[in-house]
Recover the amino acids of this structure.
């Protein structure tokens, strides 16, 4: 009859054997097993996402047609003119960029196609902040593709599976982006911060020139610089409300207030790079 000590130690021995077996397994086998498990789990999450969409659909069906038409009219009155002005400015800027590229004989910037995607899952903690979207390699999503939303840059794609992709948000500590202050061409560094759940997301800006100032009364808007070839230039990152001089006295650093909608995203747009012409 086994002694009580052996019975108590048996679960630990089993756990030790499993861990040892996992350590000696080849890396290729671990990767295949991980991907297989993820692809097995993904349909469940996607099914819940479709159920939420169906629930929203039937919720809208309870509204009368007159209410929906009136809401659409109110939105059109407020946004129609603004969208028209933005479209004209965008066309003029594209023409100016093409003119300068031709004049200076510069290579064309990377072109993208927009791929809208619904958010399936949110995974927030102190070490990373990421979301899972309902688009993957089947729709042409690639690792490293920038992801945007109404507030500017949402993040970048870090994992791509058949029907889903993982997006690391710019509020995650592992994200670094070359940025500039709006109205200034000098590059600075942006990095996500350590953000606890249920708090306003924040980041950090580094290598700021000493002649740039920002206060709560006069914040400075931080945008992408276009350097690095990942994000197009001019996309919003956040607002800087304070800057402090580094200990070495060469640059300034400060906190970046990110859009609070980052933690409530339901839909994003993935900018899939188009293959360059031969």
């Amino acid at each position: 009859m086994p002694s009580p000590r052996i019975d108590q130690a048996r679960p630990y021995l089993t756990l030790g054997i499993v861990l040892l077996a996992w350590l000696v397994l080849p890396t290729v086998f671990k990767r295949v097993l991980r991907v297989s498990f993820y692809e097995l789990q993904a349909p469940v999450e996607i099914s819940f996402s479709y159920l939420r969409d169906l629930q929203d659909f039937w919720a809208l069906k309870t509204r009368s047609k007159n209410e929906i038409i009136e809401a659409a009219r109110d939105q059109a009155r407020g946004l129609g003119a603004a969208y028209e002005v933005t479209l004209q400015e965008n066309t003029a800027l594209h023409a100016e960029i093409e003119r300068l590229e031709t004049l200076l004989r510069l290579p064309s910037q990377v072109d993208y196609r927009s791929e809208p995607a619904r958010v399936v899952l949110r995974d927030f903690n102190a070490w990373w902040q990421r979301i899972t979207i309902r688009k993957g390699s089947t729709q042409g999503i690639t690792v490293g593709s920038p992801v945007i939303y109404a507030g500017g840059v949402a993040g970048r794609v870090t994992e791509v599976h058949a029907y889903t992709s993982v997006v690391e948000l710019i509020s995650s500590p592992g994200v670094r982006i070359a940025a500039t202050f709006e109205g200034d061409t000098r590059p600075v560094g942006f990095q996500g911060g350590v953000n606890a759940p249920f708090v306003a997301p924040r980041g950090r800006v580094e290598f700021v020139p000493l002649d740039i100032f920002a206060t709560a009364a006069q914040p400075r808007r931080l945008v992408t610089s276009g350097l690095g070839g990942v994000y197009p230039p001019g996309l919003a990152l956040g607002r800087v409300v304070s800057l402090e001089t580094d200990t070495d006295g060469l640059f300034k650093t400060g906190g970046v207030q990110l859009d609070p909608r980052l933690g409530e995203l339901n839909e994003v747009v993935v900018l899939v790079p188009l293959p360059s012409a031969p």
Q: What stands out?
A: The CA atoms of residues 24 and 30 lie 10 Å apart. The longest strand covers residues 112-124.
